[in-house]
Specification:
Layout lengths: L8 E5 L6 H11 L3 E3 L3 E2 L14 E2 L2 H9 L3 E7 L2 E6 H9 L3 E5 L2 H11 L3 H6 E8 L2 H10 L5 H16 L6 E5 L2 H16 L9 H11 L2
Parallel strand pairs: 1-7, 1-8, 2-7, 3-4, 8-9
Antiparallel strand pairs: 3-6, 5-6
């Protein structure tokens, strides 16, 4: 019988182009006990994306309404589009003992850490990881290899990456990206260790009952 009392809020951030989305997809595919927190965004859906599965796609008015209603744990503007993590969804999953994967940028991570200062559930669950290639050359190569952005956008993302790298010291873990398999293995190692923290678990009831019985003898 599981003695699990709460889940892990597993947050991964990275500079643009570092491979964060691929790592998150691989983690979810390989770990049935890890679920993705679906975030809200005002950006248009891309080909193949489904509302309620990939994102909750909102218009600007809907998003602002949720901000005013304090519905988000964190929200930020990224390259002209709004993104936000719903408080209600995260709380529901954590209280059911689920491990939650959050794929958000360093802005969102900073806001979530601030939220954790006044929210015991988030504070006790949050684990943050910063993922980055080990060299600037590799970071730029990955960004350019996507072949989806103009040169202007690439340079903008590289300038943003310089700022994001400076924020890495605020994270609990730093993972230097190598292969897709190795990145996933390292993330799984962190998640497994954090899942076994004493603060997130209690002895199963059958053990407590046996200990009480034998202690009385």
């Amino acid at each position: 019988m599981s003695g699990r009392t709460s889940g892990v809020l597993f947050l991964i951030s990275a500079p643009s182009g570092a491979g964060k989305t691929t790592v998150c997809q691989n983690l979810l595919a390989a770990n049935s006990d890890l679920v993705r927190a679906i975030t809200c965004t005002t950006r248009p859906a891309r080909d193949g994306e489904v509302n309620g599965r990939d994102y909750y796609f909102l218009d600007e008015t809907e998003f602002i309404s949720k901000i005013e209603g304090d519905a988000f744990l964190e929200h930020a503007v990224v390259y002209g589009n709004r993104y936000g993590t719903l408080k209600s969804e995260v709380q529901r999953l954590l209280e059911s003992g689920k491990n939650i994967l959050l794929n958000i940028d360093v802005q969102g991570a900073a806001l979530l850490r601030r939220r954790a200062e006044s929210d015991p559930l988030i504070r006790d669950s949050l684990v943050t990881v910063f993922l980055t290639p080990a060299s600037w050359e590799e970071l730029e190569r990955r960004l350019r290899s996507r072949a989806t952005d103009s040169e202007t956008i690439i340079l903008k993302r590289l300038r943003a990456a310089a700022v994001e790298l400076g924020a890495s010291e605020a994270f609990d873990y730093l993972v230097l990206s190598e292969t897709m398999d190795e990145d996933r293995r390292r993330m799984e190692t962190i998640l497994e260790g954090e899942s076994m923290r004493r603060s997130r678990n209690q002895l199963p009831e059958v053990l407590c009952e046996a200990a009480e019985k034998w202690g009385a003898k």
